Amino acid sequence: MIEIRRYTADRADEWNRFVAASKNGTFLFDRRFMDYHSDRFHDHSLMVFRDHRLYALLLANERDGVLVSHGGLTYGGLVMRPQCSAKGVLDAFTAINGYLRDNGFRSVVYKAIPWIYHQLPAEEDLYALTAVCNARLTIRDISSAIVGTRRLKFTESRRSGLRKALKAGLTVSESDDVDAFWHILNDNLTQKYAVRPVHTADELRLLRSRLPEHIKLWLVLDGDTPVGGTLLFLTPQVLHTQYISANSFGKQHGAIDLLFDHLINHVYADYPYIDFGKSTVSDSADLNEQLIFQKEGFGARAVCYDTYEWTV
Fold first, then answer.
1. d(CA 261, CA 164)
2. Label partner for 103 (CA 20 to 30 A): which of 130, 180, 224, 269?
3. pLDDT number for residue 273
4. CA end-to-end distance (rounded Å), the chain
C-alpha cells in the first residue's frame, strides 16, 4: 500500500536521514540547505510511504496550481531508498498523481537528478514519467563533466593559461573569505550579464556554516590578494563547481587554469566526477559557447540536465 503525506518541519530529521541513506540524494536535499530560501518558495514536498515505511521523497514547491520539483534547486526529482524497484516507483507516481489531483494541482514541473549524482542506478523515475505520467521533455540543459578514471588532457589554451599563472607567481589556497570571492563574482556577473549571483554573500556564509564538509571555497592569490576562485559543492559522486570567477588581473594571468589544474589533478584527483555546471541560458535555448569552450578545455564533456512536465 502506498501513502502520500505532505512534509512538515517536525519531520526534518527523518527527512535528512533518508536523504543521507538514499541511492540518489545529495546534500542539496538536506533541509539545512533547502530551507535557507524557504521564504521564497511555498514548500509542498511529499513523503512516499510503502507499507508504512518511508520509501521515497519528492522535494517540491507549489506555484499557482503547479508542483515544481524544485524551483530553488538546479535539480529535484524523486529521492529513493536503495531498495526501490521499478514497480514500486511506478506505484509511487500513480499515488503521487492521485494526491495531486485530490489537492487541486493542474500540472508538474520535474527536474530530474542527473545520472552522475546517483550512487546506485536510479532512473526508475524516468521510466515512470513516460509509463505513468505521459510526461514530455521540455528543457534540456547541457553541463560539462570530467570522469575521474578517464581524463582528457587540458587543451593548449588551458595549458597556456597555466604557464602564465605560474610565471606570475599566483598561488591557490582553500579559504573562508566569502566576501572577497563574492565581490569578484558579483562584479563579473553584473558587468557581463547584468545579473547578480543567485546566493548573497550572507547566504553563502550561512550555508557553509551549516554544511562545512560539503561546501568549500578555493581562491587564487596574487600575493595576499584574491584574483579568482571557485565555490565547490561536494557530493558523494560529484564535485560540482557552483561558482567560478576571476577579476581582470586573474583572467589576464590564467588564474582559473591554475586553479583547476590544482583541484582536478591534485586535491580532488580521486573524485569520480567533476561537474562544471550548465552552459545554457534562457531555458536551454542558447549555448554560451565561450563558457563551454573553457570547461571543455579542462577535458569536460556533456551531461544533460533534463526537465519534464505533465498534466495531472
1. 13
2. 130
3. 98
4. 21
What whole-number distance in Å separates Cα of residue 254 and Cα of residue 241? 18
Contact 23, 120 (CB under 8 A): yes
Which residues does the chain have with pLDDT short of 70?
193, 282-285
In Å, how far are 56, 144, 274 from 279, measured between CA atoms? 31, 8, 15
- C-alpha angle 144/33/145, rounded to 5°? 10
Q: Any residues with CB less than 8 A from the CB of 132 and at least 6 apart, and which? A: 90, 93, 94, 97
Burial 188-206 (b: 16+ CB within 10 A, else e): bbeeeeeeebebebeebeb
123, three cell numbers: 532512473
* Dist CA 109 CA 258 (whole Å): 39
Q: Is the dihedral of CA 288, 289, 295, 296 positive or negative?
A: positive
C-alpha cell recorded at residue 232: 565547490
Longest dimension (CA), the chain: 66
pLDDT of residue 283: 66
Long-range contacts of residues 286-295, Cβ cutoff 8 Å, at least 24 apart: 287/142, 292/142, 292/144, 294/158, 294/256, 295/144
* Angstrom distances, CA of residue 221 to CA of 158, 169, 175, 188, 254: 18, 9, 10, 17, 12
Residue 299 · residue 154 · CB < 8 Å: yes
| pTM, 2 dp | 0.93
Question: Of 50, 62, 65, nearest to 4 (Cα)?
Answer: 50
